[in-house]
């Protein structure tokens, strides 16, 4: 059976407030009209006063209307994991003026609703799949016939792991100390921990297959050049000693 849409409490609160204000305003104007008060001037003065009040509380009203927009449009809901700018965390509370986010490090981040809607928000809770791109390198001395095996080898590994869709695997670049392969695949899960388990299994199987086919993984290399110390030859030393002796004789 289809589930009923979840009602946003913030939207209900705002709509309730607006409805109450309208009802009480109409009741007050009706009462004043019944007792003989000319409400035309009163309505005009209320309009001017309302504009002044609106200008005074412009920031607050913008946040309130932003919360109303969040309630109707639902770019995120309580429990969603969102990322924007340098903020990453889970939505804990959506209020009339602010939204509270629990960050990965544990602290609570409070954002004004109007400013929040001006950001480009990444909602990872609604992500259904992940496109993964990773690279690895093999030794530059690997023969071409073995290089041709790597693409099909990686394709079979990714297909066999499950919950993945293989896209491509190619020899990407000739780097200084390795031949770099680029692999692209899709993980059919939004769960981050499960994605990491799948990627770890793929990496381990690639290492096993490379070892099985005598293909060496490229490891970072460090070249150290030490200064060469040149020793004086004995001939030069003897000539210098003889020269010093001649100088002493002349003196």
TrEMBL record:
<feature type="domain" description="Mechanosensitive ion channel transmembrane helices 2/3">
    <location>
        <begin position="18"/>
        <end position="58"/>
    </location>
</feature>
<dbReference type="Pfam" id="PF00924">
    <property type="entry name" value="MS_channel_2nd"/>
</dbReference>
<keyword id="KW-1133">Transmembrane helix</keyword>
<dbReference type="GO" id="GO:0005886">
    <property type="term" value="C:plasma membrane"/>
</dbReference>
<dbReference type="InterPro" id="IPR049278">
    <property type="entry name" value="MS_channel_C"/>
</dbReference>
<dbReference type="Pfam" id="PF21088">
    <property type="entry name" value="MS_channel_1st"/>
</dbReference>
<dbReference type="GO" id="GO:0008381">
    <property type="term" value="F:mechanosensitive monoatomic ion channel activity"/>
</dbReference>
<dbReference type="InterPro" id="IPR049142">
    <property type="entry name" value="MS_channel_1st"/>
</dbReference>
<dbReference type="InterPro" id="IPR010920">
    <property type="entry name" value="LSM_dom_sf"/>
</dbReference>
<feature type="transmembrane region" description="Helical">
    <location>
        <begin position="39"/>
        <end position="61"/>
    </location>
</feature>
<protein>
    <submittedName>
        <fullName>Inner membrane protein</fullName>
    </submittedName>
</protein>
<feature type="domain" description="Mechanosensitive ion channel MscS">
    <location>
        <begin position="59"/>
        <end position="126"/>
    </location>
</feature>
<dbReference type="Pfam" id="PF21082">
    <property type="entry name" value="MS_channel_3rd"/>
</dbReference>
<keyword id="KW-0812">Transmembrane</keyword>
<dbReference type="InterPro" id="IPR023408">
    <property type="entry name" value="MscS_beta-dom_sf"/>
</dbReference>
<comment type="similarity">
    <text>Belongs to the MscS (TC 1.A.23) family.</text>
</comment>
<dbReference type="InterPro" id="IPR011014">
    <property type="entry name" value="MscS_channel_TM-2"/>
</dbReference>
<dbReference type="InterPro" id="IPR006685">
    <property type="entry name" value="MscS_channel_2nd"/>
</dbReference>
<keyword id="KW-1003">Cell membrane</keyword>
<dbReference type="InterPro" id="IPR011066">
    <property type="entry name" value="MscS_channel_C_sf"/>
</dbReference>
<feature type="domain" description="Mechanosensitive ion channel MscS C-terminal">
    <location>
        <begin position="132"/>
        <end position="217"/>
    </location>
</feature>
<keyword id="KW-0472">Membrane</keyword>
<feature type="transmembrane region" description="Helical">
    <location>
        <begin position="12"/>
        <end position="33"/>
    </location>
</feature>
């Amino acid at each position: 059976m289809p589930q009923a849409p979840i009602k946003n409490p913030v939207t209900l609160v705002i709509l309730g407030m607006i409805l109450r204000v309208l009802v009480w305003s109409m009741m007050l104007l009706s009462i004043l009209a019944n007792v003989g008060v000319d409400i035309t001037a009163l309505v005009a003065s209320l309009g001017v006063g309302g504009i002044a009040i609106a200008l005074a509380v412009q920031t607050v009203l913008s946040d309130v209307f932003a919360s109303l927009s969040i309630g109707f449009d639902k770019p995120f809901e309580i429990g969603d994991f969102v990322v924007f700018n340098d903020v990453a965390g889970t939505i804990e509370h959506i209020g009339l003026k602010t939204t509270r986010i629990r960050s990965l490090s544990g602290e609570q981040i409070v954002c004004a609703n109007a400013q929040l809607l001006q950001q480009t928000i990444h909602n990872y809770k609604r992500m259904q799949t992940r496109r993964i791109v990773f690279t690895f390198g093999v030794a530059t001395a690997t023969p071409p016939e073995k290089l041709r095996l790597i693409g099909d080898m990686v394709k079979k590994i990714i297909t066999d792991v499950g919950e993945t869709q293989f896209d491509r695997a190619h020899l990407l670049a000739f780097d200084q100390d390795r031949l770099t392969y680029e692999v692209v695949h899709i993980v059919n899960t939004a769960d981050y921990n499960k994605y990491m388990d799948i990627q770890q299994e793929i990496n381990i199987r690639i290492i096993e297959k490379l070892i099985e086919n005598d293909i060496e993984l490229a490891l970072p290399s460090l070249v150290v050049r030490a200064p060469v110390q040149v020793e004086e030859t004995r001939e030069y030393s003897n000539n210098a000693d003889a020269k010093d002796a001649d100088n002493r004789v002349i003196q």
